[in-house]
What we know:
Blueprint: E1 12-19, E2 28-29, E3 35-36, E4 44-45, E5 65-69, H1 75-84, E6 90-93, E7 102-109, E8 114-118, H2 121-124, E9 132-138, E10 151-152, H3 157-163, E11 166-168, E12 171-176, E13 178-181, E14 199-200, H4 206-211, E15 222-229, E16 235-248, E17 259-266, E18 271-275, H5 281-285
Parallel strand pairs: 12-18, 13-15
Antiparallel strand pairs: 1-5, 1-9, 2-3, 4-5, 5-8, 6-7, 6-9, 7-8, 10-17, 11-12, 14-17, 15-16, 16-17
Amino acid sequence: MRIRTNVDRLVELAVAGKVAQPILRGYQVSSAGEPRILPLLGGIVYNVKCGQPAMGWVGDHLEPGVALELARTEENAVRALNTFAQIGNAALVTGGAAKGARGVVTGKHGGIEHVHVDFAQRDLEKLAIGDPVQIRAFGLGLELSDFPAVRVMNLDPGVLGKIGLGAAGGRLVVPVALVVPAELMGSGLGQNQCQSGDYDIQTADPASVARWGLAGLRLGDLVAITDADHSFGRIFRKGAVSVGVVVHGDCIASGHGPGLVTVFTSATGRIQPRVSPRANLADMLGIGAARARHGRGRR
């Protein structure tokens, strides 16, 4: 399906960050009251990639691939990095032993304000904490000309043609790995915009995990949320539909779980989710766990 957009009027610019040092906040207390110390946020994660499970790792909020950051003292620059970078944007290492390596943005993380980039394994082995990475930021303000009731955000225009979008009865048909209800959504609610950050699917209730198939969730999966409107922040709205990409792994803390970055939303329900096992960024873009299958470098 040909998607008409305003791509010819979008601004393309460079933003940059540095490979983030992992952080440790001491004990994480689980929703069951169990204190644990686990690998947390940031760094270069060698063995957790887009396309691999979002659940089951001995870690907390794991960010696949490489996390980029800026010093918190540069508040406006931090905000620009997390907002202007779009899923699917090209990234380039501009210094260090991995200089010249190319990657793909796979997500953004609220609170810590990281941007996630997927690189081939051979490049991960050369990267170091603090290495500079520049992103060709393109996609902010993207609109779908034929679907005015659907807002698109956090997405490189080049990804649209790889998702497998369709149309039916005036609705945008979007392939998704899962459909979940708004009642499962937790941390990240209350913001007034969704062009940065993410929010989490709560996974503390085993019955809900089983009912909605969350155990099989993968990093990079597209997930539809019913009765959720993300037009101007994340709110419950009966009949609305939003779609997000899974950008980080599960979490033991109350109100948390795998995080979603919004890519489509319709306050009036003009999105029709279509469940597909291939509704994952790794498969669509040939990155992460799918790199070997696409001949893009050793996993």
